[in-house]
Design goal:
This protein is α+β, with helices and mostly antiparallel strands. It is built from 3 helices and 7 strands; from the N terminus they run E-E-E-H-E-H-E-E-E-H. Helices cover 15% and strands 31% of the residues. Keywords: Isomerase, Rotamase.
């Protein structure tokens, strides 16, 4: 039980190997799906064309993100597979996420505090610097 991390391209990490720490503010693009036969999508910052910004490691997001994102390096893309106890548990998040659902998030760690990843598209990087 917990969060399983699959790095999609280890070479994408920044040369500095900068990792977020508890309390850091991160910017992430993500696609969230149920871990079911259809990989049913339930949320996507990419579809909204607006990356998600949050403080990490302090309980503002699900436990799978709090524990998984801090293991990524700036610029990395990964899949976080979160068991129900690291997601929304027995309650789920009706009507979108059923009870006891395992969730899969494809994530791209684009920014840690004021440090922007080099593999963020140029126009997006300019926006990230302004935030």
């Amino acid at each position: 039980m917990g969060v399983t991390i699959t790095i999609l391209d280890p070479a994408e990490a920044e040369p500095k190997k900068l990792n977020p720490k508890k309390g850091d503010t991160v910017e992430i693009h993500y696609v969230g799906t149920l871990d079911d036969a259809n990989n049913t999508p339930f949320d996507s910052s990419e579809d909204r064309k607006a990356p998600f910004t949050t403080q990490i490691g302090v309980g503002k997001v699900i436990k799978g993100w709090d524990e998984g994102v801090v293991q990524l390096s700036l610029g990395q893309r990964a899949v976080l597979l979160c068991t129900p106890d690291y997601a929304y548990g027995a309650r789920g998040f009706p009507p979108v996420i059923p009870e006891n659902a395992t969730l899969k998030f494809k994530v791209h760690l684009r920014k840690i505090n004021n440090e922007v990843a080099t593999n963020v598209p140029e126009a997006d990087a300019e926006l990230a610097h302004r935030r």
